[in-house]
Structure formats: C-alpha cells, structure tokens
Write a structure and sequence with these properties.
By secondary structure, the protein is an alpha+beta fold. It folds into 2 domains: 3-176, Formiminotransferase, N-terminal subdomain (Formiminotransferase-cyclodeaminase, Chain B, domain 1), CATH 3.30.990; 181-297, Alpha-Beta Plaits. It is 34% helix and 24% strand. The chain has 9 helices and 11 strands. The strands form 2 sheets. Strands 1, 2, 3, 4, 5, 6 and 7 form a 7-stranded mixed β-sheet that branches. A 4-stranded antiparallel β-sheet has the order 9-10-8-11. Helix 1 (16-28) runs antiparallel to helix 2.
Length: 298
C-alpha cells in the first residue's frame, strides 16, 4: 500500500481547543496522526500525518477547514514568519510513491484548496511551477505584506485562487518534497543578535552549509534565543555537522548551547539514540523517529 506523509503547519499554538479540533478532524478523516508539535512563542503547530494518499489529502483538507475557520492573521502574533492561517502544506512520498506522483497529488490538492476557500495558493519545492518560486523562503520573503505586493506582478501570481489574500487566512503554500528536519538549537543567551549572526553563518543562502536554512528567533518564555533551522537533506549536511557549526559560531560570541529541539519527526537515518544525547535533544525518548511512529500506528 502506498504511504504518503503530510506535515501541515498552522499559525496557532496557544489555543488548545483549536489544536484539539484539528487533531480530531485529521483522525476522523482516517489518517494516522503521528505527531503534533506546538510552540507558543512561534505561535505555530506542526501536524504530522500519514496514510494512503486519498485519506491523507482528505485529512489535510479537514485540518485546513479548522485552521481557516479559527485563525485570523489580522490578530495572530508569533515570532515565526508566516503568510497563512494554514501556512504550508508539504506532501512527502514515504513508500510506494514516486516524487512525480506526489507532485500530482500536491497540485491537485492545491487547486481544490483554493477553490474550497477562495484562497490564493502557491506551489513550492518539487511541485513548483517556476524555478524562482521553488524555495519556501522566496515565497515568504517580506512576510505576508511582501508577498501580497508581489502578487500583482505577472511572475508572482498565485498558482491557484485569487490574486488578493483571503481576508483572515492570508495565503497558503503547498508542495511536494523529500523528508526534511525541522530543528531548533537553543543558545545560552538572550541576545538575538548572536542567534541571528550564527544563523547567517550556517545557512546556505549566506554561503554557509548546503541544504541548511536558518533564522535567529527569541524564546520569550525561556528568556533565551534559538537558531531555528530546516535541514532539507541530512544526507548532504548531517545534524551533527550543523550542531558543531552552531556551537562554533556561538562560541565566537562567548556563548554556549543549552539544548536542541526537534519539531515533528525525523528519519531514522538522520538521528541515532547516541546522536540525540550528543546533540542535546530535549525530551528525547525515541518517539521523534518517523519510522518508529509509523510502525506503532499500524
């Protein structure tokens, strides 16, 4: 049986009732809800679900319904950049699916989502229709306001839906991609300039490590800062390589590392139990491994 993973990010983490409704909607659609990661400072939650393609796309629509009905970007606040109430919806082939098939699924879903909600939808990564819109950070550049301004240009019209944002839900980005690792490393300081400098040093777009995207963000509830990252291919740049680079960059400011945090799930090939200890993964118990969650859900 083909297995499709979907990892929607919604711009809400502070209201448990909304997250519970989203989780219930995913489960009611028949998908296996593997994980829900919420971060109140980011005001963002990451849902990880898997199952047959038809079930997973139905569950993604159900979660989008909940997010769009309950998240209003006119009042939503959080440190993580976002352009939509349901901000990004990536589809990932896990078993029995080619990337080409996953691209077709993502594009069909994006078209249906736009029609269902009157919502502008952009395609990214392997599903992108144009090279300059392939990277998520290119679409997000300048936040929602920057994207809305570009949407009036011919090269930046949405792939589906209207050319103006949804009044409360903004814009959604849908894609097909290989598994990535969302990972935050917490620094032993409250200086945002330090986190921003370390992020600049390590991210690929600034001449740093290949397949690494990074931002420096504050964590108000802990009184510290973090380097928030996406590792788009751990086979090219490993978690250990990234950890060492962050440690070296922080040390130049006389700052150490407190711990690190996995957002969602990671492939088993990217992280062993011994690695998790060395990389100071907070609250690690093995349940952060994708294959283990999938096996337990069968």
């Amino acid at each position: 049986m083909p297995v499709l993973e979907c990892v929607p990010n919604i711009s809400e983490a502070r209201r448990s009732a909304v997250l519970d409704a989203g989780a219930a909607a995913v489960s009611a659609a028949g998908a296996k809800l593997l994980d829900v990661h919420r971060d109140a400072d980011h005001n963002r939650s990451v849902f990880t679900m898997a199952g047959p393609p038809g079930v997973v796309t139905a569950a993604a629509h159900a979660l989008a319904d909940v997010a769009i009905a309950n998240v209003d970007l006119r009042t939503q606040q959080g440190v993580h950049p976002r352009v939509g109430a349901i901000d990004v919806i990536p589809f990932v082939p896990i078993a029995g699916l080619t990337m080409e098939a996953c691209v077709a699924i993502a594009r069909r879903f994006a078209s249906d989502l736009a029609a269902r909600h009157g919502l502008p939808v952009f395609l990214y990564e392997d599903a992108a229709a144009a090279p300059h819109r392939r990277r998520l950070e290119a679409i997000r550049r300048g936040g929602l306001a920057g994207l809305v301004a570009r949407m009036q240009e011919p090269d930046w019209r949405p792939d589906f839906g209207p050319v103006t944002p949804h009044v409360s839900a903004g814009v959604t980005v849908v894609g097909a991609r290989v598994p990535l690792i969302a990972w935050n490393i917490t620094l032993a300081t409250d200086r945002l300039d330090v986190a921003a400098d370390v992020a600049r040093r390590i991210r690929e777009s600034s001449g740093g490590l290949p397949c690494v995207k990074a931002l420096g963000l504050p964590l108000a509830h802990r009184g510290v800062v973090q380097v928030s990252m996406n590792l788009t291919d751990h086979r090219v740049t490993s978690m250990r390589t990234v950890f060492d680079a962050v440690a070296a960059g922080a040390a130049q400011h006389g700052v150490g590392i407190l711990d690190s945090e996995i957002v969602g799930l990671v492939p088993a090939a990217a992280l062993s139990d011994a690695d998790a200890r060395d990389l100071r993964v907070r609250d690690y118990d093995g349940n952060q491994i994708l294959e283990r969650r999938l096996a337990r859900s069968e």
